[in-house]
Amino acid sequence: MFSKVGRAANAPLRIAANDRRNSDWSAVVRCLNFMLLILSTIGAREVSTKPGVARRFARIYTDASFSGLGIVILIEGKSYWTSTHVDAEIMSRWSLTDIGGLEGLAALCGRHFLASVAPEVHDFVIYVDNMEVASNLVSGYSDRDCLVCLMLEFYLLVAAHPGRVWIEWVPTAANISDIPSRHPGTTCLAHHVRSPTLKAIFAADNFADFVFPTHSSLWTALPPMLPVPASMGGTSLHDGDEGEQPEPS
Predict the structure, then answer these.
(1) What's residue 234's pLDDT?
(2) Lowest mean pLDDT across 15-24, 52-61, 97-106
(3) What is the pLDDT of residues 197-216, one digit of tens each?
(4) Model-level pTM?
(5) Per-residue CA distances from 158 to 50, 59, 110, 151, 187 (Å)
(6) Are strands 123-128 and 165-169 parallel, antiparallel or unpaired?
(7) Distance CA 231, CA 237 (A)
(8) 217 vs 240: which has the higher pLDDT
(9) 11 with 73, same domain?
(10) What is the pLDDT of residues 114-155, one digit of tens each?
């Protein structure tokens, strides 16, 4: 719904808002009315596990800034969080010019982090505040090499650990992982927040060590014959692989 309708409906609004000239708002009005019509047909949705089935469920919040990546996981009243500074190698070798690639990497790391702190939990909802990445996660595709590879890796993880997965967009102001992404590397963020609830989430005892993947290690789970782009920014996905490549069929 968000991938197919949400972005299509708000695109004319963004275009008109950024146009210094007097814009024709009729297209915007039509798009917004269309979105209201669609939303009116959809009832309230509650994400939950099936009644009577003893399966644990996780909420994953991920975010990225040019300072760092942040992840928060909530499972049955227990919280886990981690963060890291943005690796300069990733920025340079992926030729990232905007935050989208880092947001995609943060989402992928969120699934890796869940496997690290609670490997038995396979049902989760992941909250992302970047519209492009949320759409890519829903559709499993992107027109950018770095993001399409991240989406492939994400769904390989999902396939390797079958479960029920929801992708949700969340406003930045409601994304609690924004805090560790902007203050990476600290072992306690309680002094950055005032809310008692957030202070409890970001207690030092809830911090979990997590080895964030590098450009060289991220793709180790990819099957060698998977049809992904051969390079990103002129760099081979599998560093050090000097073997002959198969001829295209």
Answers:
(1) 32
(2) 15-24
(3) 888 888 888 988 887 766 55
(4) 0.71
(5) 19, 15, 12, 11, 29
(6) parallel
(7) 6
(8) 217
(9) no
(10) 999 999 999 999 999 998 899 889 888 788 877 888 888 888
Is 172 within the bounds of a domain?
A: yes
Helix extents (H) in 21-119:
26-40, 88-93, 100-117
Tokens for 232, please give them: 């990103």
CA dihedral 200→206→210→212, nearest 10 degrees, is 0
Query: Quick one: 151 and 116 in the same domain?
Result: yes
Of 63 and 212, the one with more pLDDT: 63
Domain count, the chain: 2
CA distance 55 to 51: 10
- C-alpha span between 208 and 240 (Å, rounded): 31
Residue 8 lies in a domain: yes
Instruction: Please report where in the chains the tokens 């079958």 appear, as a residue.
Output: 162
Tokens for 29, please give them: 């009005």
Q: Are 150 and 241 in contact (CB under 8 A)?
A: no
Print burial letters for 131-156: b (CB count within 10 Å at least 16), e (below 16): bbbbbbbbeeebebbbbbbbbbbbeb
DSSP 8-state secondary structure symbol assigned to residue 204: G
- Please tell me the predicted confidence (pLDDT) of residue 184: 83
